[in-house]
Write the structure tokens for this entry.
Amino acid sequence: MSQLNPAFKFQDNHPPASDFELEVLEGLAKSPKVLPPKFFYDEVGSGLFDAICRTPEYYPTRTESAIIRDNVDAIARCLGRGCLLVEPGSGNSAKVRDLLAALEPHSYMPMDISKAFLQKEARKLADEFPWLDVYAVCSDFTVSMDIPIYPEGVHRVAFFPGSSIGNFEPGDAAAFMRNIRGMVGDDGGLLIGVDMKKDVGILNAAYNDAAGITAAFNLNLLTRINKKLGADFDLSAFAHHAFYNEGPGRIEMHLRSLADQTVTVAGRAIPFRDGETIHTENSYKYARDEFAALAGDAGFRLDTCWQDAGGLFSLFYFAAR
Ligand SMILES: C[S@@+](CC[C@H](N)C(=O)[O-])C[C@H]1O[C@@H](n2cnc3c(N)ncnc32)[C@H](O)[C@@H]1O
């Protein structure tokens, strides 16, 4: 129980361990091999993501945070005070801290798949803001956007920063936003951060930081599979590989095998050719109008878009109607 904030609550809808084994084996049986990015986030992976956000090359976090701080009163006016603020993929809940004082929400619902990290971060936030009801939910937002409470007379707003929407294929992004549209209902809205198309050099540097933290984050997926599924990935026999693919407009992140090798995962032999990759993440970049159209397909109406002076990143507020 939280020590300072008695209103802190936690609901555990974490997917069972068997889903992890099934999805990993399924992904490694595909050609090309693929693993979903949600599996990056165990406690170590979540910590590494925080460290990525502090690298000089990774501009999205500091750019989006500055947009929020510079426009906080206008953002609060758009969202409306007293809302239930739901943040899927809340991570360390860093960005919401800049919104809370101006927005005065009825309650805050951080939602994340990384259970231990979520519990720690949500408790910390609840104790920092003792006046706020914090209801943390551990769940996989690709499976369900259901929330445990729908307080009467309280409008709902989803906050989805960090350009996490870029991890979905565009069609899946529209489907996900449609689920959010269903969760917030007709009186709600969506405040969403989206990374813009830009100079390829800036993009490639952001996913290949000189300190090698993004590489460690990518490779931690293999460590996690070794630990959870008794696998024998040799981490020195795989390398981080990230690049901007101009056609689809996305950063692709892969783990590349440095040799012909066979790895055992949950008792199953998985062969790798020298140079073969596991595709671990996409991060789609959008033009402003392109993204507004996608959200329109999901049933949202563009209300306001805030950008930094360089046009690197956009924060959109979409109303349900
Ligand atoms: C890129 S981080 C962004 C964190 C934070 N929202 C920000 O803007 O800095 C993505 C977060 O989403 C969570 N996440 C990823 N896939 C998820 C899923 N399918 N369901 C729930 N949470 C997920 C991760 O654990 C992580 O905390």
The mean pLDDT is 97. The pocket of S-adenosylmethionine is lined by residues 38, 41, 46, 49, 61, 89-91, 95, 112-114, 140-142, 161-162, 164 (CB under 6 Å). Residues 213-229 form the longest helix (17 residues). The CA atoms of residues 186 and 320 lie 5 Å apart.
